Amino acid sequence: MPLAGGEVMAEQASMLAMVLDAPGVALRAARIPVPVAGGTDVLIAVHACGVCRTDLHIVDGELAWHRLPMVPGHEIVGTVVAVGPDVHRLGVGQRVGVPWLAGTCGHCRFCDNGHENLCDGAVFTGYDRDGGYAEYTLADARYCFALPDRYDAIHAAPLLCAGLIGYRAYAMAGGPRRLGLYGFGAAAHILTQIALAQECEVYAFTRPGDERSQEFARALGACWAGPSDARPPAELDAAIIFAPDGALVPLALAACRKGGTVVCAGIHMRDIPGFPYALLWGERCLRSVANLTRADGEHFFAVASSVPIHTSTVVFPLTRANEALEAVRTGGIDGAAVLVPDARLGDGVREE
Prior knowledge:
Distance between the termini: 29 Å
Structural class: alpha/beta
Number of helices: 9
Order of helices and strands: EEEHEEEHEEHHEHEHEEHEEHEHE
Mean pLDDT: 93
Number of domains: 2
Helix content: 10-25%
CATH class of the largest domain: Alpha Beta
Strand content: 25-35%
Shape: globular
Oligomer: single chain
Low-confidence stretches: 1-11, 348-352
Largest sheet: 6 strands, mixed
């Protein structure tokens, strides 16, 4: 039942959540208290939560843990059911999206200069704050997004990180005419559709032998798809690396023309091997993407309102979160895995 002021009905006093107790250990299903919205927080009934590779890095211990136990998940779509006393821009019953960036200090040199994504005091959903692998979650209303009506919860969820980070990386690529995407998963399949809408040629690179993903890329409109160790048929203006493999960096640099840009779009990457300076020479640029800003979200969702993005999704019940993570780990699905609370699967949501 929707309530104001952060109260929760007695029958909603506990909720199902998938909890990470330690890195490298499977998530466990648990009943934990429904959190109470205070301050600028809103309580959100989770409709869907995408499974991001960053979740996998956290669960596998590839990122230093910030807080344990922890509920992962930062591609959250849900409905506000309670608001804290200091919330003014969201109301009960409103649909919202919750991204990775959960809060910033608001006064450091980065925040003051439009780079809140680099704030040293930033906190993150599903890392510092409990995330969306649960029936309910808290989020700071100031960091939530309104979502375009054209997307239902399942298809909107991957937009909240795969879409946002891909779009930020694309902006850093400098308006390429020929764009290479290394690693063709959730982010790449969304970005391909945006790039094609802007008349960009897309070249998709996958693990050698992954013909299924290559065919998926071609079906979405990529003009070429092949293994990551192959040279594309034309020089690239820019390349974005989504796969967490540092060995792809020299390959991407070699595929780019002089003056081209290689963007590393992941939060974690295995070590980059040494490579000849000649690959960087010619004013090629190598850079990374870190997190996102709220302005990124506003710009991206404006694009998503006008460009019909089809997110290819595989739905898992919340209690099968470990299976969903394994599917992401092995590249076993095309597109994005999305968790739906088990109780909602009875509302006409199809389980894959």
